[in-house]
Design brief:
The complex is a heterodimer of chains A (311) and B (311). Chain A has 311 residues and is mainly α. Chain A is built from 17 helices and 2 strands. By secondary structure, chain B is mostly helical. Chain B is built from 14 helices and no strands. In chain B, helix 3 crosses helix 14, helix 8 runs antiparallel to helix 9 and helix 12 packs across helix 14. The chains are: A mainly alpha (311), B mainly alpha (311). At the A-B interface, helix 1, helix 2, helix 6, helix 7 and helix 8 of A face helix 1, helix 4, helix 5, helix 6 and helix 9 of B.
């Protein structure tokens, strides 16, 4: 079917399309209004990082102070500690929790009894849906100094009881452990899908060449899911400054602030708690900008070298 | 013919080889692998089993820290206490209301946003999508968002508990992808009959989209049920305290030394260990998630994989 069109100016054409489907464009309004009010207005609100913002004077009435709050941030020893904590906790989580789902997925793929596999999946996906508040409760319950079964066992073995939630030496480990408990199982989904997409002939060929299970995993499975791994790694790296704010906010307490106060928790306490709006916004803005830069550049690299990208 | 038989023979030979190989190292590997997953599954379930056992155990047993899998000195007084606690019931009620209203509101807003964006011919489709996706990569952070919510007079109202999350861009993209996959021919014929875009959306598209609406609806419901962050930031009145926030305070209060005076006193009067009451509260708050989990698991896995396809 060929429609002959009278050539007309582009703008007129655009306008006509919109008028013709006016109700379609109307549907866009609520969503855009939501984005404008709750996403883009706060972005505009970031300018209070360059003011001495007072809630009574508003953005229009507050004095501009340039980079004062960012200078404060650089010399602030507490911020330095917070940044160190953030990077350390994030790195631990990256080191232990990034490879874990890959390994679990590869091993799970070797399970041949479908019934068993399905039950395992049902069980290990479950914690993903449990809130941090509940998880914190579960582990307080397990690890409590006097009533927790873990300390009872430690005591029976003759070891010293450990106040896991109050001990600066183990608290970061506890953060990694609980996040692992919550997310490792769920993290396998994406890798299991990638593994399922591998051509079975590759395994056949590897077997023909005499490769055993381990060799097949290393030389067939891993290379085949490599681009998925890199993609997930980039997403993860983009979140390096988000060390688990929601998790830490429910699990920490003043005794372990020194080792577990991260950017997100710090912004919350200084901003909402102490109402130092401008300074905490500057801290938050620092995090947002770094995260944005990391993800965008990571994605660009990925596109260039792997031909795959997040968007 | 000759060739076919040859390759047939080869295949049989290959199978034979596999069987031989299977019987040596692989059998050990398989046994270890099954053991690994049994341990992993056990480690995932144990925190739940332990908290359930504690919630049904007597004070003496809980305090002595000997409860593991099964309740010791079975009692249900703790549950009577939890379900008779006014604040707990009120928080439960608020959370149910917020979850229902929030899920419906979110689904409505998400569908409205996704439908026009699923039209390949929509003018300004690319920039509109970018406006959405950009909010996934960059945000104003908690303080500017808090200030906007204050300006909108939503602080300390029930609105604060679901409005900030009305549209989740990731879920919106999942719905959009689903709409895109619906054959155009259905819409074309309706259009020829003079149906408006709105009618097409509500009478043709939505009935076909029940699976994705169920999936995304569950996504939203779990997010709303589990979230405590909005309540913590925007809510100070105890009338609007959500279940997760209530539990967070309860857990913090019984964590080792700190106590909320009233709470513990009530428990003492009834001869219950605060730990057992806490355990019962945790179990009660987790039951709704466990009830929907079978549906969740089925839909979520699909959702994650759909979402991993480019938006």
């Amino acid at each position: 079917m060929k429609v002959t069109r009278v050539p007309r100016s582009n703008r007129f054409h655009t306008w006509r399309t919109i008028v013709k489907d006016w109700d379609l464009y109307l549907l866009l309004v609520p969503g855009l209004l939501f984005l404008f009010l709750l996403k883009y207005t706060p972005m505009y609100g970031l300018i209070i990082a360059f003011q001495d913002f007072s809630i009574f004077k508003g953005i229009g009435g507050s004095a501009w102070v340039g980079l004062k709050h960012f200078e404060r941030l650089v010399v602030n020893e507490q911020f330095f500690n917070v940044l160190t904590n953030t990077l350390l906790i994030s790195s631990y989580k990256l080191m232990f929790l990034f490879p874990a789902p890959i390994i679990v997925a590869i091993l799970l793929n070797e399970i041949r009894k479908m019934m068993f596999k399905r039950i395992v999946q049902s069980v290990i996906y479950l914690p993903h849906f449990i809130s941090w508040v509940i998880i914190s409760g579960l582990f307080v319950n397990l690890l409590s100094l006097n009533d927790g079964i873990v300390n009872t066992i430690l005591a029976k073995l003759g070891a010293e009881r450990i106040a896991f939630f109050m001990d600066q030496n183990v608290f970061r480990g506890l953060l990694v452990l609980t996040e692992g408990w919550k997310e490792i199982g769920w993290g396998t989904i994406i890798y299991l899908a990638a593994i399922a997409a591998i051509d079975p002939q590759l395994y056949e060929a590897a077997k023909m060449d005499g490769a055993n299970k381990l060799q097949q995993m290393i030389h067939v499975t891993l290379p085949s899911i490599f681009s998925t791994i890199v993609l997930m790694l980039i997403l993860r790296l983009g979140n390096m400054l988000e060390a688990g704010t929601e998790q830490i906010l429910v699990m920490y307490n003043p005794v372990v602030y020194d080792v577990s106060d991260v950017i997100g928790t710090y912004v919350y306490r200084v901003g909402i708690g102490a109402s130092d709006y401008s300074f905490s916004t500057a801290v938050g803005m620092f995090e947002s900008i770094v995260a944005f830069t990391l993800v965008v550049s990571g994605n660009a690299l990925c596109k260039k070298f792997l031909g795959r990208s997040i968007w | 013919m000759e060739l076919a038989r040859n390759s047939d023979q080869k295949q049989r030979q290959r199978k034979k080889n596999n069987v031989i190989k299977d019987s040596i190292g692989e059998r050990i590997f398989n046994i270890l692998n099954y053991c690994f997953f049994i341990i992993l599954g056990f480690a995932t379930l144990f925190p739940f089993l332990n908290v359930i056992a504690k919630s049904f155990s007597s004070e003496a047993a809980v305090v002595s820290g000997i409860v593991t899998f099964f309740p010791i000195d079975f009692q249900i007084g703790t549950y009577e206490l939890v379900l008779g606690n006014k604040q707990f019931l009120n928080s439960f009620r608020i959370t149910i209301i917020v979850t229902i209203i929030g899920t419906l509101g979110s689904l409505f807003m998400t569908v409205l946003a996704a439908y026009p964006l699923s039209k390949p011919n929509l003018k300004f489709r690319k920039p509109l999508l970018l406006i959405y996706v950009f909010t996934m990569l960059f945000n104003g952070g908690i303080i500017p968002t808090y200030l906007v919510m204050r300006e909108l007079s939503m602080v300390n109202t029930v609105w604060a508990l679901f409005v900030p999350g009305l549209i989740n861009v990731f879920y919106m993209l999942i719905v959009k992808n689903f709409f895109e996959a619906i054959p155009d021919s259905l819409e074309e014929s309706a259009k020829l009959d003079g149906a408006s875009n709105m009618r097409i959306l509500f009478n043709i598209i939505l009935p076909l989209s029940k699976p994705v609406l169920a999936t995304v609806g569950l996504f939203y419901a779990v997010l709303l049920w589990n979230s405590y962050f909005n309540a913590m930031i925007y809510i100070t009145s105890s009338d609007l305290k959500t279940l997760q926030l209530y539990l967070k305070e309860l857990i913090a209060s019984t964590q080792e030394v700190m106590t909320i005076a009233g709470q513990i006193d009530v428990n003492r009067d009834l001869n219950q260990a605060p730990e057992a009451v806490r355990a019962a509260s945790i179990v009660t708050a987790t039951v709704p998630i466990l009830l929907v989990y079978p549906f969740l698991q089925k839909h979520f896995v699909k959702g994650v994989l759909v979402g991993s396809v480019k938006g």
